[in-house]
Design goal:
The radius of gyration is 19 Å and the shape is globular. 45% of the residues are buried. It contains eight helices and 17 strands. Helix content is 36%, strand content 23%.
């Protein structure tokens, strides 16, 4: 498969995001940056303030060769570490690697797999001196040399190493296990604005919103809110048991409905979604195949549901 073709498909809706506020999604229509002959937006699936519009494509690609970050970290074929700690992680002889001190916005990644690695902006890796969110979509060649991985901190209160390597998040209710996906408002500050201060601001806003949410709706509101208030880690906030319950309550109805839609539309190449909150489009994710969408869907829907939870708390989405 041609990598340029793959990137073109992945970026179609990302490039269209600046127009999202002016595009009113309706079933059977497409964003202004796409051709109606290539993509079609279907009838929406709604739950509370969250709405997703399934997208089908005229053509699907074979993406079976690609390795996801979850798969690579789980198998050990992909290694992510702080700058200066990568030498011991190599499985083969490679070019000399400059040793630098750890830096907030830089990690080092090695793909030891024989498959190309797909990285999505918004995926969170935990460990090292602080948790980070990946700043851009990219493909890392098979058996790569170490690469500089552009990242943003999503744990501003820590700069002490907890592990040499970065890993995937522990399992959460529903069997979702893997690198956490940041909510759209956090992803946009890393991916589009490329601004660390704005990323930190969104992380703080998420922390505040979720503390308010569990205080109102949680079964054990005081301990949960206290636990959220004591951490600066976005990942730990999202793995708080009361936050998980709230996110699940938003995500599961749409996840089940959409999985049913995907099964029905597999032959029609269901490849992504447009996401809206309270009738306003905020994000879109589109892939080159139904297979890739299915791999990422569990953590994508949870990221959308987390954003919906912030809306319900009254914090909304920043501009």
């Amino acid at each position: 498969m041609n990598f340029k073709t793959f990137f073109a498909v992945v970026l179609v809706l990302v490039l269209g995001l600046p127009f999202a506020g002016r595009w009113h999604a309706q079933a059977g229509t497409a964003p202004p940056s796409t051709s109606t002959s290539e993509y079609k937006v279907l009838a929406p699936i709604r739950h509370g303030s969250l709405t997703v519009f399934p997208i089908v494509a005229a053509k699907s690609f074979d993406t079976s060769e690609f390795l996801t970050l979850d798969e690579g970290l789980r198998s050990g074929d992909v290694v992510v570490t702080e700058s200066g700690s990568i030498r011991s992680m190599m499985r083969r002889h490679s070019r000399p690697i400059p040793v630098e001190n750890a830096q907030v916005n830089q990690l080092v990644l090695v793909n030891n797999s024989k498959r190309p690695l797909l990285l999505l902006a918004g995926e969170i890796v935990t460990g090292g001196k602080q948790d980070r969110v990946i700043g851009k979509d990219r493909i890392v060649p098979a058996e790569s040399d170490p690469i500089d991985l552009s990242v943003f901190c999503v744990e501003p209160g820590r700069w002490v190493g907890t592990s040499d390597k970065f890993g995937i998040a522990p399992g959460v209710p529903g069997g979702v296990s893997g690198a956490l996906m940041a909510a759209p408002s956090v992803r946009s500050k890393a991916m589009a604005d490329k601004d660390q201060t704005k990323v930190w601001s969104e992380v703080k806003r998420a922390q505040t919103a979720m503390a308010e949410t569990v205080t109102v709706a949680g079964e054990f509101p005081v301990p949960a809110a206290r636990e959220i208030g004591e951490t600066s880690s976005y990942a730990r906030v999202m793995h708080n048991s009361e936050v998980q319950k709230h996110v699940d309550s938003m995500a599961e109805p749409i996840q089940h409905s959409y999985e049913s839609v995907i099964k029905q539309l597999r032959d029609r190449n269901a490849v992504g979604v447009v996401v809206a909150m309270n009738g306003q489009i905020i994000w879109a994710d589109i892939f080159a195949s139904t297979n890739l969408l299915e791999k990422y869907w569990p953590k994508l829907i949870r990221s959308y549901a987390a954003e919906a939870g912030w809306h319900e708390s009254g914090t909304g989405v920043s501009g």
